[in-house]
Amino acid sequence: ATLVFLLLSPSTTTTTSSSSSVAHLAAVGLVSRQYQSGGAGRMAFEEGTGGDSVIVVDNFFTGRKENVAHHAGNPNFEMIRHDVVEPILLEVDQIYHLACPASPVHYKFNPVKTIKTNVVGTLNMLGLAKRVGARFLLTSTSEVYGDPLQHPQVETYWGNVNPIGVRSCYDEGKRTAETLTMDYHRGANLEVRIARIFNTYGPRMCIDDGRVVSNFVAQALRKEPLTVYGDGKQTRSFQYVSDLVEGLMKLMEGEHVGPFNLGNPGEFTMLELAKVVQDTIDPNARIEFRANTADDPHKRKPDITKAKELLGWEPKVALRNGLPLMVQDFRTRIFGDQKQQQP
Ligand code: UDP
Ligand code: UDP
To answer: Quick one: CA dihedral 199, 205, 210, 216, positive or negative?
Structure first.
């Protein structure tokens, strides 16, 4: 049985526990898929049928136990509270290294901790992979392209990143994580995979995560104004979480190191996103402009030609189809079971 090992967010001294990262969403999805799918060496993850065992490692800085609570009784599922900045000894065949807060609000909260997670945390996971001969998948980010001067972004683009800015702990951290990954690959012959994840959203995301999709959805449901930062003309491309999970698993099981962009090429300005949220939740939702944050990338859109050709992967869920699935989950969590009575 393959032991799949998922790493989630790093710890910090704060007790902010009501938030969730894309990494966590993805990890939760991965666990679910391991349970369900039968093909490609992945087996039904049920008692008595054999199949993969899954160990989830999280420190619950941005992740929440509730996100995986439904797997708790499964004998092939195990959860460990641990921070990847500290070494750990485990016997595993595959490592999905997703640890790091991914919302700018969270990764700027303790920037030194963020870069330690990306550098020391990644080093520890690579050391673990080397010791047990596991295949190692790094979830990097579209932020390695910085405020890109090429559009859309192709994997061969080296990026335009400010090394001393407030986002550097995350984007330079992930760039270093990619470097470490390739150095272990070349130097220690480790089997590695690198994904560059673009903006992702979906159910189980923390309501107060601070990112734009979760903010707009929660604001519209609570009848608060949608906060658009800057002039709202900056763009992002939004990927539904199940597409990301499928891409990560195809990457892990495939033959190619990458890096691969994993994102939905559908590109929206923040004002266009606000419109989609209005259409989905409340046409009367107001928009309120706020000052933008420093070094905010002006545009972002993945070129996914490489993933299409080499992984046979492309996203299936458009924003207008994915958003309602997230809204349903947010509605339940914000209003509880009385949701049907909410306007
Ligand atoms: N490491 C770990 N678990 C393991 C093996 C290694 O956490 O099962 C950590 C180890 O503590 C070290 C890092 O991974 O800090 C890098 O390990 P490696 O063996 O590559 O380098 P070295 O220990 O020789 O510096
Ligand atoms: N943003 C916004 N309103 C919000 C939160 C974010 O307009 O309430 C903008 C933010 O300035 C950025 C974009 O939305 O241009 C995406 O931000 P997010 O934090 O979701 O992710 P990023 O791509 O910056 O990591």
So the answer is: positive
Lowest mean pLDDT among 73-77, 118-122, 145-149, 297-301: 73-77
Who contacts 62 (Cβ-Cβ below 8 Å, separation ≥6)?
8, 9, 16, 19, 20, 21, 23, 24, 101, 102, 103, 106, 206, 209
When pLDDT is cut at 50, 70 and 90, the band that residue 291 belongs to is very high
Rounded CA gap, 287 and 212, in Å? 13
DSSP assigned state of 240 = E
Per-residue pLDDT, 51: 73
User: Ligand 2 mean position to 212 CA, how many Å?
Assistant: 5
Residue whose token pair is 């959203």: 201
What positions carry a catalytic annotation?
A: 170
Cβ-proximal residues to 120 (8 Å cutoff; 6+ apart), any chain = 84, 85
State pTM to two decimals. 0.89
Residue 104 beta carbon below 6 angstroms from any ligand 2 atom: yes
Most ligand 2 atoms within 8 A of CB, residue of 211, 237, 264, 293 to mutate: 211
**Residue 193: is its pLDDT beyond 60?**
yes
pLDDT of amino acid 62:
87
Residue 3: its pLDDT value, please? Answer: 43
Q: Do 167 and 112 contact (CB within 8 A), yes or no?
A: no
Model-level ipTM above the cut of 0.90: yes
Q: What is the pLDDT of residues 208-267, one digit of tens each?
A: 889 999 999 999 999 999 999 999 999 999 999 999 999 999 999 999 999 999 999 999
CA torsion 217-219-223-228 (nearest 10°) is -110
CA of 211 from ligand 2 middle (Å) equals 5
Cα angle for residues 122, 200, 184 (degrees, 5° grid): 20
Ligand in closest contact with the CA of 89: 1
Ligand nearest the Cα atom of residue 84: 1
Q: Which two tokens stand for residue 252?
A: 């892990």
